[in-house]
């Protein structure tokens, strides 16, 4: 009898030890899992610009809150600094116009386009051309010898304008370009420091609503959006080290594009608050909802850069410039 009671007691104690150990093990596993999850969050360095940017919008919508990738803002910088900063690793991800990215890659930069970003539509063009109200500048034919404000050289504003002027019998070499951030062009134009201002969203909306200015045309009026793709690019080292983070970021951008296109007023309200602007003066970008990079949009800029002797034929290949590999909508 005593032997049976002892055996029963031993069995009970053994079972209790196993249960406690399992509980501790479960607790340790949970703690390890939580720690591991915390470590897996990848931050990408990103600039702060006065620009209608889906990274900012996604952040305001809380899409990065539970994600394993999120932006780490590194402060303001001029548009002309963005791609050099991406090349040298000061930032990890950037949105800048396609020709700037191609030119950097042609010079040996290890960066790559991974989503299409924004494109131009009649309602939401990529950029608008403004003059002072009452100006004698009525069309592209009046641009010769004028001073034009733009956000940087080597991108859409410079190349699209020069091409359009040349196609209409003008002389691009007669133009005096002055660079400044988009949100500063209105003042320069109003004070007479420039004759024409090329402005991107969201600031283009403020200029459109200001009676001191008159819009001449947009980039969509020039080429129906062919030149307009303003993609997201990634530093090559970051891409190699964090491919899953780039994949998740692509998915977040797709989600944000769909939300913004479905809720344009709410998107404007969010950007207005971020940039301390009036919501009715904010303009949007149109973002393709699949975020696939179109070959035609890249090839256009390769051909254009060859045309202006910034590239030699065959100097860069399409696969060097962009990839759709991280996009869930991509089908080989």
Report on this model:
This protein has 332 residues and is of the alpha/beta class. The protein has two domains: 50-123 and 227-321, D-Maltodextrin-Binding Protein, domain 2, CATH 3.40.190; 128-223, Periplasmic binding protein-like II (D-Maltodextrin-Binding Protein, domain 2, 3-Layer(aba) Sandwich). The chain contains 13 helices and eleven strands. It has a five-stranded mixed β-sheet with strand order 7-6-8-5-9. Helix 2 (54-60) links the parallel strand 1 and strand 2 (69-76). Helix 2 crosses helix 10 (243-262) and helix 10 (243-262) packs across helix 11. The longest helix has 38 residues, at 2-39. It is globular. Mean pLDDT is 88; it is low at 1-37.
Span of the ends, CA to CA: 75 Å
Helix content: 40-55%
CATH topological fold name of the largest domain: D-Maltodextrin-Binding Protein, domain 2
- Using the CA coordinates, give the radius of gyration: 26 Å
* CATH homologous superfamily grouping of the largest domain: Periplasmic binding protein-like II
The strand line-up of the biggest sheet is 7-6-8-5-9
CATH class identity of the largest domain:
Alpha Beta
Which runs of at least 5 residues are low in confidence (pLDDT < 50)? 1-37
- Indicate the multimeric state: single chain
Principal-axis shape equals globular
